[in-house]
Design goal:
The structure holds two protein chains of two kinds. Chain A is an all-beta fold. Helices cover 0% and strands 45% of the residues of chain A. The radius of gyration of chain A is 13 Å and the shape is globular. The N and C termini of chain B lie far apart (37 Å).
């Protein structure tokens, strides 16, 4: 059973913020939200993860709703190189359990 | 952190041949994940290991696939005999999943 649902595809104008939503209504209390992306012909790349507080790093920001049933990945100033498939995953962090990918969202950044 | 290197990057082989894919370095007591990606199925988890012991290999066809760690720094995925339906890109990941290799693109004719 899929633990997350994401839109199949999204477009974003270069230089604008890209907001990628993810629903995870069955998330458990000890599960984190992870985001990865996969640029064509490369392996998945870790972006960010969080439990319940909003998180920010040099790549992106992660906004998690108070009930933790959904989250949004924000790329503040999208560039053409951000065109990729973005995956939202829920899993227990710091435990070497499985990490399963869904279909993700294909983000296309347009000039 | 050292990047994960997968070799070979591309492999074309005939049906029935043995294929070995490599992933390194595996550092310390890290967990190793193996994935297969096709257009139809997306990224599928085949198996994951810790300290050379399988934690879950239920996604791997065990009659022809085997995953091993010949030493502490190297993980391998073998297919014997290979079949055309094994054609895919195979990825490994190290640790808590934060470091992926760039994959081995396998074509079985």
């Amino acid at each position: 059973d899929a633990k997350t649902t994401q839109p199949t595809s999204m477009d974003c104008a270069e230089g604008r913020a890209a907001n990628l939503p993810c629903n995870h209504s069955t998330i458990s209390g000890n599960e984190y939200v992870y985001w990865y992306r996969q640029i064509h012909s490369q392996g998945p790349q870790y972006i960010i993860h969080g439990l319940k507080n909003n998180e920010t790093n040099e790549m992106a920001s992660l906004i998690i709703t108070e009930d933790r049933k959904s989250s949004t990945l924000i790329l503040p100033h999208a560039t053409l190189r951000d065109t990729a498939v973005y995956y939202c995953i829920v899993r227990v962090a710091q435990v070497n359990n499985d990490m399963r990918f869904g279909a993700g969202t294909r983000l296309t950044v347009k000039p | 952190d050292a990047r994960v290197t997968q070799t070979p990057r591309h492999k074309v082989t005939e049906m029935g041949q043995e294929v070995t894919m490599r992933c390194q370095p595996i550092l310390g007591h890290n967990t190793v994940f193996w994935y297969r990606q096709t257009m139809m199925q997306g990224l599928e988890l085949l198996a994951y290991f810790r300290n050379r012991a399988p934690l879950d290999d239920s996604g791997m066809p065990k009659d022809r696939f085997s995953a091993e760690m010949p030493d502490a720094t190297l993980a391998t995925l073998k297919i014997q005999p290979s079949e055309p339906r094994d054609s895919a890109v195979y990825f490994c990941a190290r640790g808590t999943g934060w470091h992926f290799g760039n994959g081995t693109r396998l074509t079985v004719t």
